[in-house]
Design goal:
Elements lengths: L2 E2 H8 L2 E3 L5 E2 L1 E2 L9 E4 L16 E5 L11 E5 L2 H16 L4 E2 L4 E2 L4 E2 L4 E2 L4 E2 L4 E2 L4 E2 L4 E2 L4 E2 L4 E2 L4 E2 L4 E2 L4 E2 L4 E4 L4 E3 L5 E3 L5 E4 L4 E2 L4 E3 L5 E4 L4 E2 L4 E2 L4 E2 L4 E2 L4 E2 L4 E2 L4 E2 L4 E2 L4 E2 L4 E2 L4 E2 L8 E4 L2 E3 H12 L1 H17 L1
Length: 341
């Protein structure tokens, strides 16, 4: 899809400085721009590239003044960075504006859907599924029986939504996500073998939640695993059965949360954090990457380490840890001198 400089200026409420009819069909970095691409200049350290870029159109601040000849057409806006971000959002909407039902796909006779849906090829929608308006289900996705998807939900290719899951409005489920698989529930018998504990609960994902690629959210043993409004989950996160994550909490990749743990709202959890089960983490908690959390955490704490310590205590302790070999050497010297005295 191609856009002219005039069309782009209209979207951004900008002014064209150059060829109004020039067309672009691709985005690029300013240093990698080529004919037919659009770029932007915001950071002053990239200013030299505007005189060499081959991009057809460059978005700049209105205050920009060229000190040398340029070949790119300029679109002048109040804030180039914000304008380019707006354009990315618009471009993404256009790119993802798919509608209709592709074949082959399966849509149960007992399932219902709203207006303007997209159902990609080889996708499966089970019995009694309820799908809202403007939902997009990409190829090879699986939507199990009795699932509910709210309005403006996107389920990308290859995602699996198990039965009974409830997903709210404006949610994004990326490729490879598995929502509603069995929780890790087994109990040993007298022979030392493990018998499976049936997992008959579900997963509830509230509005405006993003779930990154490869993340798994297990169904509850009883009741629900709950991901509350505004939560953002990175790729490859494990959320176990009966976990609850509070509003607007953000969790980075490769974090694992064991069963029945409750996490508060507005928390920020770094990558590769391990959290044990059956504990409570308060609101506004910050957990640094690769920390291990094995206790309840109060509101507003910042933690680091494994087992995690208060962030300030960890940094003070780490100074001593780094110097431990020298400290031991001094201690050994003192002991020898004491023995020889």
């Amino acid at each position: 899809m191609k856009f002219t400089a005039t069309q782009i200026a209209g979207i951004l409420d900008g002014e064209v400085d150059g060829n109004e009819a020039v067309e672009v069909f691709k985005l690029a970095k300013i240093e990698e721009g080529s004919e037919g691409t659009l770029t932007f200049l915001s950071n002053p350290k990239y200013t030299p590239y505007i005189y060499t870029t081959q991009a057809s159109i460059t978005i700049v601040d209105k205050a920009f003044i060229a000190e040398n000849p340029i070949t790119t057409t300029l679109i002048r806006v109040d804030d180039a960075y914000k304008a380019f971000s707006k354009l990315l959002e618009y471009y993404n909407q256009v790119k993802m504006n798919k509608k209709g039902v592709e074949q082959p796909s399966f849509f149960s006779e007992t399932a219902t859907h709203g207006d303007e849906i997209y159902l990609g090829a080889f996708s499966y929608v089970g019995e009694n599924v309820k799908i809202g308006n403007n939902v997009k289900i990409y190829p090879n996705a699986y939507i199990g029986d009795n699932v509910t998807l709210g309005d403006n939900v996107v389920v990308f290719a290859g995602a699996k939504i198990y039965s009974e899951t409830i997903i709210g409005n404006h949610c994004v489920i990326h490729s490879g996500v598995i929502v509603g698989a069995d929780g890790f529930g087994f109990t040993p018998n007298e022979k030392g073998e493990y018998n499976k504990v049936p997992q008959i609960g579900n997963v509830i994902i509230e509005d405006h939640v993003d779930v990154g690629a490869g993340t798994a959210i297990d169904r509850a043993t009883l009741g629900s695993t709950i991901i509350k409004k505004g939560v953002k989950l990175d790729n490859q996160i494990q959320i176990a059965h009966n976990v609850e994550i509070g509003e607007n909490t953000v969790i980075a990749a490769q974090t694992g949360i064991a069963g029945s743990t409750k996490i508060g709202k507005n928390c920020i959890i770094g990558g590769q954090v391990g959290i044990v089960g059956h504990i409570t983490i308060g609101d506004n908690v910050r957990i640094q990457a690769q920390s291990g959390i094995g206790r309840n955490v109060k509101d507003n704490e910042t933690l680091q380490g494994s087992p995690a310590l208060n962030y300030g205590d960890f940094n003070k302790s780490y100074v001593h840890f780094k110097n431990l070999p020298k400290t031991m050497e001094r201690l050994n010297t003192i002991e020898k001198n004491f023995e020889n005295s």
